[in-house]
Every structure is written in structure tokens, then in C-alpha cells.
Amino acid sequence: MFAMGLIAGIFGIIASVLAMMVGGMDAAFSSTGTSQITGLGISALLFSILGIVGAAMTKTKPKVAGWLMLISGIAGFISIFMFYILSAVLFVVGGFMGILSKKVPQSGQNVSA
């Protein structure tokens, strides 16, 4: 789960930088001089960072980490759509792994019914 979140975050950062570059090109050639794609790329960058934070929390709080990664995957996909497809899939799969994981009792603890 950690590796999936970290890889998704790295690819998400790359995708958001590409989206910001496309937004810059759009702004340069548009008549108004602005582009919404740049802002959506920035939001995808923030969601990628949130997903990496979630990936870092996988050992201590897997449920919270799963929700953070799931939110990052869905929101990043909404932000920049096809640029974020690989990251979205990895974040969503890793997020569901965290949400649906069960804590395994350690061998040194006394487990009684």
C-alpha cells in the first residue's frame, strides 16, 4: 500500500506539472491570457501531495491513510482527468486496501475472547 501510494504520488506530481505546462500554453495563445487548466493542475498537485502524506501514514493509521489516498485519487482525476489516470488507479486501489484492511494482532499480545 505504501509503495502504490508513493508511486501514484510521484506520477501525480509529474502529471500535474504537465497539466500546468499545457495550461500555460493555453494561456499564452488565448485571447484573455488566462487558463483554467493551470489552476486545475495546481489542485492536482496538492492532491498528489495529500496522497503521498496518506501513503506515509500506512503503517500507523491504515484506515486514515486509505481515505486520504482514495480522496486524492478521485479528486485528482476530476481535476485533470486523463493526465491523472495512472495515479488515480493506484491511489484508489491503495486506498481501498487501507480502508478494507484488518489489524492483525501481534504474537506477543494476549488475545482472548
What report would you give on this structure?
This protein is mainly α and 113 residues long. Helices cover 73% and strands 0% of the residues. It has four helices and no strands. It has helices at 2-29, 36-56, 62-80, 85-99. The protein is rod-shaped, with a radius of gyration of 17 Å. The chain starts with a helix and ends in a 14-residue tail after the last helix.
Shape: rod-shaped
Number of strands: 0
Work out the strand percent: under 5%
Oligomeric nature of the chains: single chain
| Helix/sheet category | mainly alpha
Helix content: over 70%
Please state the average pLDDT score. 91
* Biggest sheet features: none
Q: Return Rg in Å.
A: 17 Å
Spell the H/E element sequence. Answer: HHHH
| Head-to-tail CA distance between termini | 30 Å
Contiguous helical run count: 4
**Uncertain stretches of 5 or more adjacent residues:** none
Summarize the helices and strands and which ones pair or pack.
Elements: H1 2-29, H2 36-56, H3 62-80, H4 85-99
Helix pairs in contact: 1-2, 1-4, 2-3, 3-4
TL;DR of this structure?
The protein has 113 residues and is an all-alpha fold. The protein has helices at residues 2-29, 36-56, 62-80, 85-99.
